[in-house]
Write a structure and sequence with these properties.
Elements: H1 6-9, H2 13-25, H3 37-50, H4 59-63, H5 66-78, H6 85-98, H7 105-108, H8 121-131, H9 133-141, H10 143-146, H11 158-170, E1 179-181, H12 184-189, H13 195-209, E2 223-225, H14 231-249, H15 256-264, H16 283-299, H17 308-321
Parallel strand pairs: 1-2
Helix pairs in contact: 2-15, 3-5, 8-16, 16-17
């Protein structure tokens, strides 16, 4: 049977009616995990640059949402036409694929003298990465040793999407039968989705993020199919491609009810921009910026010398009292 694609169906009234009909019929029986690809890529900046330096206990950064602050400022900077964003983005992607810091000199070979004034947050990230490049390099080298795919598919989002769905449907407390459109990335990490690999990922999410209620069991091994011969996978593809279409082009007039149904099915760990995280007039953003400044200064041997937990307390108190201000 021919594949149904939302990008084609959205071009006609008949196609849009078909999408609405499908979505209405499965209301409450589906879940969507969607990501802004660039923001998802920026999320790796914290995990692969900051976390190796604090790998023994990075929990406070996740508890304070500092990882999201870093991701959002990278997201903004990578889209800045006046910056060197294009080259930096290409280098970061090359680094993520090769796990070689030599592929990203823009991050790991920063030369700008001593910190002064109020640097852009991305400059502080560069300073941190450069100051800790040896530690980061050693940690990243271990990825190939401890992952079943040798880190080949690090930038692919299908694995994180499947993780979200498995945890969501696992709450039903019934063994899952999982059918996927054939995928090299998912085949590569299939062994990590059961037993030891699954349990290690769940423990990491529980410790770092405080996540509860995670886990699943399979009724049988994952089944990979050709979506053209599998109607239920085609329906999933219609949901996915409709989400992409709406996010990039907007919701067509007349599909408001369909949009509301899809919103209800959107998983909470979908990744979309949150600009409130980087409004430096807000107290939380002021605190995050001050912490980033301290981390960069420490990487260059100019920090205060206090623990990051104590520094958070000092900054939070200063911002709350109005003693710490940003001009």
């Amino acid at each position: 049977m021919p594949e149904l694609k939302a990008s084609k169906l959205m071009k006609s009234n008949q196609g849009r009616r078909l999408i609405s009909h499908i979505v209405e019929k499965i209301d409450g029986k589906f879940a969507i995990n969607a990501h802004d690809k660039l923001l998802a890529l920026c999320g790796w900046v914290f995990e692969y640059i900051f976390e190796p330096v604090y790998q023994h206990d990075p929990r406070i950064f996740y508890q304070k949402n500092f990882h999201r602050f870093i991701a959002m400022f990278c997201y903004l900077w990578f889209q800045d036409e006046n910056s060197n964003a294009k080259d930096a983005l290409v280098q970061f992607q090359a680094f993520m694929r090769s796990k070689d810091i030599g592929d990203a000199p823009f991050l790991f070979e920063f030369k700008g003298g001593a910190i002064s004034g109020k640097p852009h947050p991305f400059e502080l990230i560069q300073r941190f990465a450069t100051g800790h490049k040896e530690t980061i390099s050693r940690d990243i080298a271990n990825i190939k040793k401890h992952t079943t795919d040798n880190g080949t598919w690090t930038l692919d989002l299908s694995a994180s999407g499947l993780w979200s769905h498995l945890n969501y449907w696992g709450r039903q407390k019934m063994p899952l039968t999982v059918i996927c459109d054939d995928s090299k990335p998912l085949r590569a990490i299939e062994r990590d989705l059961d037993d030891v690999g699954r349990n290690a990922a769940i423990e990491r999410a529980r410790v770092l993020l405080g996540a509860q209620g995670l886990g699943w069991d399979f009724a049988k091994p994952l089944e990979f199919v050709d979506s053209r011969a599998h109607p239920s996978v085609q329906i999933a593809d219609i949901l996915a491609s409709t989400t992409v279409f709406v996010y990039s082009s907007g919701l067509p007039k007349g599909l408001e009810a369909t949009g509301e149904i899809m919103d209800r099915g959107m998983l909470q760990d979908s990744i979309f921009p949150d600009y409130d995280l980087v409004k430096l007039e807000s107290d939380n953003a002021k605190i995050d910026y001050a912490v980033l400044y301290e981390l960069a200064a420490t990487a260059e041997g100019r920090g205060t010398g206090v623990s990051i937990e104590e520094y958070y307390q000092i900054v939070e108190k200063g911002v709350s009292s109005g003693e710490l201000k940003f001009e």
